[in-house]
């Protein structure tokens, strides 16, 4: 009886039809290749986006530092200008005071000279 079953199984094994179509494997491989290509493109796109984000972040930091330095330069320039104006104002007042004093001394000398004559 065992022998009869083995012969029957052998007969059934040779008469089994193929599972699916032969082009199904080619279609599956083609679909897998397209899907893989799409995934690779998506990963590359994400990498490019990440690089752009990192560059923009670095540029933003650089711009902030540059703005801070320009503000410092402007503040120092304003401070120097104010100091020069203050010094110049004192010098102008001092010069005017000297001129007034010298002028009044000359006037006094002239008046004394007229009186003495």
Could you explain how this protein is built, in words?
With 117 residues, this protein is mainly α. The protein has a domain at 45-117. It is 91% helix and 0% strand. It has two helices and no strands. It has helices at residues 2-14, 23-116. The protein is rod-shaped and about 150 Å long. The termini are far apart. The mean pLDDT is 76.
Compact description:
The protein is mostly helical and 117 residues long. The protein has helices at residues 2-14, 23-116.
Present the secondary structure layout:
Blueprint: H1 2-14, H2 23-116
The string of secondary-structure elements, in order, is HH
SS elements, strand count: 0
Radius of gyration: 50 Å
Helix content: over 70%
| Average pLDDT for all residues | 76
Class by SSE composition: mainly alpha
Tally the helices: 2
| Portion in strands | under 5%
Main sheet attributes: strand count, strand direction, barrel closure: none
Instruction: Tell me the overall shape.
Output: rod-shaped
Question: What key attributes describe this structure?
Answer:
117 residues; rod-shaped; single chain; mainly alpha
């Amino acid at each position: 009886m065992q022998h009869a079953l083995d012969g029957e199984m052998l007969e059934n094994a040779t008469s089994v039809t193929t599972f699916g179509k032969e082009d199904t494997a080619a279609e599956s491989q083609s679909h897998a290749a397209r899907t893989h290509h799409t995934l690779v493109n998506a990963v590359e796109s994400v990498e490019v986006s990440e690089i752009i984000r990192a560059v923009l972040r670095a540029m933003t930091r650089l711009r902030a530092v540059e703005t801070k330095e320009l503000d410092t330069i402007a503040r120092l320039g304003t401070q120097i200008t104010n100091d020069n104006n203050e010094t110049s104002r004192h010098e102008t007042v001092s010069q005017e005071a000297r001129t007034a004093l010298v002028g009044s001394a000359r006037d006094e000398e002239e008046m004394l000279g007229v009186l003495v004559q």
